[in-house]
Specification:
Number of domains: 1
CATH superfamily: Ribonuclease Z/Hydroxyacylglutathione hydrolase-like
Radius of gyration: 17 Å
Number of strands: 16
Number of helices: 7
Distance between the termini: 11 Å
CATH topology: Metallo-beta-lactamase, Chain A
Largest sheet: 7 strands, mixed
Strand order of the largest sheet: 8-5-4-3-2-1-16
Length: 277
Amino acid sequence: MKNCITVIVDNKSQIGLKNEHGLAIYIEYNGQRILFDNGQNKEALFYNAEQLNIPLTNLDFIILSHGHYDHSGNLDTLLKLNPNAHFYAHPDCLQTRYSLHPNKAPHTISIKPNILMALSEFADTQKHFITNATEITPGMWLTGQIPRIAADEDTGGPFFLDTDKKQPDLLNDDMSLWLHTEDGIAVICGCCHSGIINTLTHIKQRLPSETKMTLLLGGLHLVHANKTRIDATIDYLNQQHIDNIYPAHCTGDNAQALLQQHCANVHSAKAGITLFL
């Protein structure tokens, strides 16, 4: 069986599919079926999956990159449809959290209450809340919590755990996934609130120095990034010599354009694309 990755939900989509502010990526890897994030609303995920002939009732793994509504909106249904699947996330994904923009009312961006209830009712033996880098099936790893070491990288927004702005949300639950392939490693990010420099540095520390990176796919959360951060990101990515880069979701149109202009092998990601590994 050929390993492949399909974007089911993204902010942009191919003709005939639905788009939304969200992300869901389906992976077939060494006979295992994995759903990495699951979008915001039921309309896009299940409609697009049906159009793409992707069954969502026989998943082996359901992974949540972090606890935001636009990545977790279908967990209740998916857990019911896949009672034998293994669910992986960081424990902090369950926190109540807010986006607090100046001159705007507080916006709750947590996992929705009905989905938290579904998670609490899901079998304990099938739930795995991790903080360290973990191999969840041979050749497929979750980063666990990612150390923040790059000076120019932050969470990418006004995120807080309270409406008084006294407790910044560091989004420690942000995790990415990497896969070992014949051509090197493929990295999949949800929103990459940890920063792509921090994320790839964390992954590379766990690999032999000569390991090739063949693919980077997912949200890079550069939508609000300043020029200093975008320039640092471009410089770093160029040093990695990645075969193909597919920024998605929260990368932002401006950052996407700059990445395509200044980095090699940057392509547009959208719902409906399938990449073979």
